[in-house]
Amino acid sequence: MPTSVPPAPGAQPGPTYSTPSYQTPAFTPVQVRQSFGQPYSASQPAYPSHNFGPHPPHVPQPQTNYPRNVITATAPAPEPTKKKIDWPESVRSYVQRSFLPANLDESVTRQEMEAKLKETISHANDSGVMYTINWETMPLPQQMIQEERSRVRAVAKPVSALTLSKKSPAVPQLASLSLSSKKRKSWDVAEAEAAAAAAPPPWRSNAASRLEDRVTFSPADKRLTSDETTAKILSKSQKQMEKRQKRFDGGYKSTYRSPSPPPSNGPVVGTCQTLEKRYLRLTSAPVASLVRPEPILRQTLELLKRKWKKEQNYSYICDQFKSMRQDLTVQRIRNEFTVEVYEIHARIALEKGDLGEYNQCQTQLKALYQMGIKGKPIEFKAYRILYFIHTANRTALNDALADLTPAEKEEKAIKHALNVRSALALGNYHRFFQLYNDTPNMGAYLMDMFVGRERLAALCNICRAYKPDVPLRFVTEELYFESDADAAQFILDYNGQELLEDRDGKILFLAGKAGVLFEDARATAFSRIDIKGQI
Amino acid sequence: MDTIFKQFAEAQVKCLGYDLSHTLSPDLSHENLRAVFKSCNAHDVKTVIKRGIQNSGVGGSLPKEEVQGWVEVYHAYWKAVGELLAIQESSTANGKSSNSSWSSIYESWKELLSALIRGYLTYGFEAWTIPCLYVAGRHLRVFAIRADTERSNNMSVESTAEANFEDDFNPESEKNQMLEDCARQLNRVFNLCLSDRAPIEHSRKWGIYYVINLLFKTYFKLNSASLSKNILKALSAGRGDMPALISFPKSQQVTFKYYEGVLCFLEENYVEAEKHLTTAWDMCHKDALKNKELILTYLVPCHLLTTHTLPSHKLLEPYPRLQKLFLPLSRHIKKGELHAFDLALQGGEDEFVKRRIYLTLERGRDIALRNLLRKVFIAGGFEEPKAEGGKQVRKSRIPITEFAAAISLGSQETLDNDEVECLLANMIYKNLMKGYIARERGMVVLSKSGAFPGTGI
């Protein structure tokens, strides 16, 4: 028997996709937030490196005895490790091993190694595994970096190869650059540059009142702007301060939480070149390097459309769309592309019955259409009406009606939705189910949500009005069940077994005997409409 | 300024809150505003005000802190007056651009309200002075609306929206930025009044309904009437210590009851709505036509649904607008003209939707249909009398087709029998008609006694 249990009216969509973690990741996870350097990211500018002899890594420093170099003199003051930490011998030798000439990797600059070491060790320290980790088998920083690079390449290459090779100093060039550029001012500048490029602290990207930040860079133009240079020193001490603070927090939380971000008064302009991005709710002002500009987002949308078609992994798609919407919002991009993103997300959410997300998209779409941006307003205004029928939100329904122009009322989809509304308002279930049979676009997904409760309501009507009985066939047709079996199952689901009778091979529904059997179920069905994200 | 201090002293001596509140009014003529503003300058304004209050004849008897509080209030008032003057002058000298705008007026007026709130919280202002809060709150709302209009007319002005970390933008709050802020300020005042624990005769609780009404008004304007629920909840939580509504000024009672009724109306709780609205109607001043019209706008649809009664011509006589709204519909309902009803509803749709009564009036169609079916029933005539002189009994078995014919009479559209049955089933289910459908025989069997309850047959 085909499934005949109607979707519980107003039931919450299953929680499977509400968790941000993917059970089966359909993509290689890209670290978005927590790493320190990401010096290999596509937007990373080339920076000069030095080929001097080993010098103390800029890490929480074990007081090792390997040769020191003069360059330390230029190191900016506050070393986070000035406080006394008794570094275990194993860590010291791990650091030493990293800098053994035999282990050095030409394509990995010293700064990257130092950053990596710093990250590794401080992470170990923060999470309290400093003494338990087997440092002997720990991969060397250069190995870790290489591994991460190939991972990033794997993700970024196929889709944005063009962007990478043409528009930014790409990964392979890095090595040669680091070899050739003998001239550099000080290593800390280079490191600060790396840090600045990878993760400008919020207070800097925030100061969007400056002209540069308002200009939309063409993707070809992703170099360091002059103010980024001036901010290098600052950014460095800022980072260290944060690190110190973090240590006192005792946890490994958001790395980029600036102590007090000044209020921003303009949108950021993103510089991130990665197509995919996990969604994270913003807790502080957005960081330009983690925000994708519109050209990248356009590529992202194409990628997501393909992936959705191929993999149908809703939790992944929803997460990605949310991060897209976030990027659009923080950059105040409101154009036809924005509309397209919201429309596609809304349709996907509809298909999957994720009404919370759907409703968020719909609210935005309404505003975007009102701003005169083109899209598919007819389709979505019709959904909007159906949605408010489902949520029984009369105030919103009234607003939706007020929002329609006379011309729109004549459009097929909207006219259909309006007819559904009036049919239900007048209790005309006969017409309602005819309309259900003939729903344009994806409206049927919405109608599926409330067709169950309307069947109950209609059944209550029939039970009160007809005596002594009606053919089951009549119920099937009036309430638009797929088959008599479905209709019977529906009745059985509500304990109506007594009401079905076989008489001379014809099944009868004893409407007159039903009494108030379906009334409770009906009342429950209509009272239970509670949707996450509903306005 | 001197006049202000004179009024201030008089009001303080006699404890006349409303008189006191007049000294904070921004509704002054241009000359008076200018006189106030020019009487001192930015450097000496505080000294002038302080001296003014102390020399006003009441200064000596006021506690020192309270004087300090009033100095701050009048200082804020003086600044706001300056802003008001600036915008008046810039609008007369047209073409000349000016920095002043309604949003800066709003901001300066907000300062005034804050100074007042501080006055109550830290400087010990007494409860009889609450009309000052009314003046401040009332005008804050007006200025907020003007500031929002000004901004939307002037799109080139960069939005000063604070950084928020939402994933989507909020179109409503961008449009009504100031008014939303205003709602927050009024909420502060609400809590200021609600949380006062002083004995009732010295309590700020006496300000509560005025503020609530202002808040309701603001929420409705913001299209978020549902927020009013929170206010009602907070109110009923503290109702035990609250003076009864009946002891507040009538004007406040009427407004409050009106909003309470409309809120119920929007939630389809027509019985409650009718109760509140009727209270408001009975208490409303007989000459307050505008208010009475507003009350009737919701009370009439309420009546239609709860008691199936229609407004009389006499009731609507003073309100031409309401006549236009309700009379055509009433006529068609009465006569059971289904199709004409549909047309009238459609014709007035925009107006009905605007007043949020469309969905309610639409249900009047049931009554129209009931009246039509009743006519069919009456037209059916009587059974053959079984015995001479026996009581006449109406024909209670009526073929579906007769009803079907009646329904399609106006529209000339033929409905199939199943749909007609569906409509009849609804009538029966809603208890507008008593009887049952015998589908096999294509008949409706109506009750012999009271087939159409409440209509005399």
From TrEMBL, chain A:
Listed Polar residues bias regions:
15-46
Q: Which residue stretches does the UniProt record annotate as biased composition, category Pro residues? A: 1-12
Q: Which GO terms describe its cellular component?
A: nucleus
Query: One Pfam family of this protein, by short name?
Result: SAC3_GANP
Q: Where is this region: Disordered?
A: 1-65, 228-268
Q: What residue spans carry the Basic and acidic residues bias annotation?
A: 239-250
SAC3/GANP/THP3 conserved domain: residues covered:
283-494
Name of the protein in question: SAC3/GANP/Nin1/mts3/eIF-3 p25 family-domain-containing protein
Automatic annotation (TrEMBL), chain B:
GO MF, one example: double-stranded DNA binding
Q: In this protein, which residues make up the domain named PCI?
A: 254-451
> What's one Pfam family the UniProt record gives for this protein?
PCI
The record, for PANTHER family, names: PCI DOMAIN-CONTAINING PROTEIN 2, UNCHARACTERIZED PROTEASOME COMPONENT REGION PCI-CONTAINING
State the similarity comment: Belongs to the CSN12 family.
Its recorded name reads Protein CSN12 homolog
Q: What species is this protein from?
A: Lasiosphaeria hispida
